[in-house]
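Aim 2 progress update. The chain analyzed this quarter is reproduced below.
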Amino acid sequence: MKDNQNSIRMLEEGRAKFAFDKAFEAKDRAYAPKYKSHVKRVPMLIKTNGLGATLAFIKNGDEAYKAIYQNLTDWLRNDAKHIIDIEEDLVKTVVSLDSAVYRAVTNEVLAFLNWLRRFSDGLIESED
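Predicted structure tokens:
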């Protein structure tokens, strides 16, 4: 049981560190305020429209959405669990997944976005 708790803690710490690094990179960009508001919006888009549709939307969105899309791609490529292998494009990979893996990837993306939202909130100033 203790090994399981340590594994979960290490996974959360990995997500948190990666999310902090991405939010820190975004904080000095011109699109930083939009990035912060978009990071808050993306989880609801996923819950409403599904992961595939949301990824397609943000991939073709403004600069801030594209940065979030790249952050998600980078996280899923570097995640220690290796839920999926992204050969070319995240959207193309996600829409071809079976339902069990699709749900696992959706949960992972939402967990990562939770950390990204927290750090964006703390590091990036809002638009006034």
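The chain has six helices and no strands. Residues 2-123 form a domain with the Peroxidase; domain 1 fold (CATH 1.10.520.30). These observations will guide the mutagenesis experiments scheduled for the next reporting period.
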